[in-house]
Structure formats: C-alpha cells, structure tokens
Amino acid sequence: MLQPLKRLLDRKNRGIGVEITPERINIAQLRSSERGYQLTTFSSLEVPEEIFEEGQIADVTALAELLKQALSAKKLKVTKVATAVPTRDSISRIISVPAELDDQELREVVINQEANLCLPYPREEVDLDYLKLGYFEDEDGIEKVQVLLVATKREVTDTYLEVFQQAGLETDVLEINSFALLRTVREQLRQFGSLEAAVLVDIEFDNTEIAILVEGVPQFNRTVPIGTYQLQSALSRAMNLPTSRNTEFLQEFSIPEPGNNLPKGMAVLQRMLGELSDEIRRSIDFYLSQSEGIEIAQLLLAGPGGGIEKLDDFFTQRLEFAAASVDPVAALSLQTEEEIPKAKRSGLGTVIGLGLREINS
User: Fold this and answer.
1) How far is the C-alpha of 82 from the C-alpha of 103, rounded, in Å?
2) Cα–Cα distance between 209 and 203 in angstroms, integer?
3) CA distances (Å), origin 125, targets 58, 117, 121, 168
4) Above 50 in pLDDT, residue 141?
5) Which of 1, 88, 101, 271 has the most CB atoms around it within 10 Å of its CB?
6) Taking phi first (over 0 means left), then psi (-120 to 50 degrees means alpha), and beta for anything else, what does residue 333 get?
7) Distance separating alpha carbons of residues 109 and 235, to the nearest angstrom
8) For the chain, what is the radius of gyration of the CA atoms?
9) Looking at per-residue confidence, does 111 or 24 come out higher?
10) Mean pLDDT of the chain
11) β partners of residue 134
12) What φ, ψ does residue 233 adopt, rounded to 5°?
C-alpha cells in the first residue's frame, strides 16, 4: 500500500536534526528564545568509508552504532529526530490541477493519476507526499492550483528509517535534503521577486545538487557528479599527496585568479571547478529556455564545498551572475556557544534546517 513520506511537509517541533552523508554524521539541536535561535548542541562525526558504497548506505548496523556514539558523546538523551534522504534519490515536480477539487479529490488526483505520469518507476515502489502551493488562472482563464509532488524510492526511505530504528530513535520527520537547506536560507530568498530566480548550488561530498528556485519553490533540480571528494582527490594527485575522505583539506586553499603560471594543483582545481561551472551554466540555460520572463538574480553556494575561499568570486566571474556563500549563522542570527569558522558554515545549512524542524520551545 502506498504510504506518504513521513511528515515530509509537517511542522511539528521537537527532537534534534540529524544529517547523514557518506562523509559525516552531523547533529544539531536548536532552541528558540526572545533573542532568536540558539544552537545549543552541534556534533560532527566522520563516517568510515566502508559504511557507504557508491553514495548509498551499505552497512545499516554500523551506521546506527556510529549514530549512537555521536549522541552519547554529546550526552543527548532524545528519542525523536528530523532527518533527510539525499536530494539525488528523490524526484520533485510541480503539477497543476483544477482548483475546485476538495482535499480528498485532490489527493486522489495527485496520488492515483498525476504521480503515475510524473514518476519514472512504478508508483507502488515509492513513498510520496505533496503540498498545495497557490492558485492561478491558466491561459484559458480556468482557475487551477499548483501542487509540489515529491517522491523517493521506498527502498531508500526504508534504509534511512532502519538506521534510526536500530539506533533506538523515532524518525519524527523524514524529508529531502534540499528542503531542509531551503528552510535555512528562506529569508535570503524572500529578497527576490516573482520573476527572479535564485540558483542554489549545494556542493556536497560526492556530488553537487543544483536547484533553481522562484519564490522559494524548486522549479528545476539536477545532480552533477562533482563534489568535494572529487575536487580534493584531483588536487591531491596533482600535488603528489595521498588522497583522503576528509575534505577539510580543501578549505585551506583560496581559489586564485585565472592565469598561465598557476601551481599545478591550483590549475587542476580550477579546471574541475570550471567543469562544474559549465554544468551550472547548462542547467541555467536549459531552465531559462523553458521559462519566459525569468531572470537569474543570484547563485547561493552551500554544502561543504560552498565555503571554499573565493569560490564565490570564481563563479561570479565565470558565470557572470552574482554568487555568495550561504552562511546559516549570519542568515539566522544564530547564537552559538563556540565560534564556527566561516569556511565551515556553508556546510551546516542542511543540518541546521533539520534542527529548525525540531525546536523545543
């Protein structure tokens, strides 16, 4: 029987946010006060290579034990968590349906009709949810409602749920990584108008997620197989250094201005970033070719790779669109017990977004 993604678009508030990536487990607990948000607990634990294979969880039991260790190290005694599955393992579509449908009819149309048309695999193999976005009149003057449909293969969601179950935790919220990240940057997105698109470039461990947003809603998504691991591996090989899964090494570098006399390592890094910028350009060009009257307002760089020094300048020059790194601490006026280095802040967007779902008032 088809089941919805568990509270994908719910707004319950309790527990902690847990982000699982092939490189790290990130944990965040936030609290709301009169002064704003406070990050009361943050933890990041490296994930051994053998736990993931080709970006997918391969050893559920080992990952659950690692999660328990991370919680124990911070003396966190919680039972409920908000977490997310990778954006690349999900599909999101905006569909339009007649506005006169009541809630039951809308569910029937979205789940039993539109989902079959949108999904590249059988409906019974997915978990899905949907959200009404707003009303509009089509070119024939008929009132319709836009609906955001989100689906993930059930084997993916089941694996993530099993990790938390084995760790003795209840998954209070299971959503998509990009939704958590959007929650963190929503105030920044509000500065753009209805005809202005923001391009969210989330440079993760083994891939980059490109999302084009209008009024905070994803209109286009694409995954590119270039992440911090690929960037660091290429840089290490060029410098005759051993490769490592710990990509913090990248944050020790600043992207130089293009030139002919760059050190070999920098030249290789620039070439790979050039390939990534070309993929971003292709994504933008494709979206704009399908969207009349929309202009690109800004690139927002997130993820562990988003904080590489002067990467925003590199993309601004290469793509001719203003680019800026996401800084959740500044964007949310987040109070922290310990200073978080600026280079690491862009990598916290997703886990902080998950923590926002679980604030204990």
Assistant:
1) 26
2) 7
3) 20, 14, 7, 26
4) yes
5) 88
6) left
7) 50
8) 21
9) 24
10) 89
11) 146
12) -60, -45
Q: What is the pLDDT of residue 360?
A: 44
* pLDDT exceeds cutoff 70 at 63: yes
Question: 168 to each of 27, 57, 82, 116, 355, how far by Cα in Å?
Answer: 16, 18, 14, 35, 19
Q: How far apart are the first and last CA of the chain?
A: 36
Q: How many CA atoms lie within 13 A of 190 on its CB side?
A: 6
Q: What is the pLDDT of residue 1?
A: 28
Residue 294 has pLDDT above 90, yes or no: yes
Give the pairing of strands 196-203 and 90-98: unpaired
Q: Which residue reads 């899964």 in tokens?
A: 245
The span from the CA of 43 to the CA of 328, in Å, is 16
- Rounded CA-CA distance 42/38 in Å is 11
CA distance 57 to 121: 21
Tell me how many helices (H) and strands (E) the chain has. 11, 16
Predicted local distance difference test score (pLDDT) of residue 264: 83
Q: Are 194 and 292 in contact (CB under 8 A)?
A: no
Give Cβ neighbours of residue 337 (< 8 Å, ≥ 6 apart): 39, 40
pLDDT over 70 (residue 4): no
Per-residue CA distances from 187 to 53, 92, 157, 182, 191 (Å): 36, 22, 29, 9, 7
Q: Which amino acid is at 351?
A: V
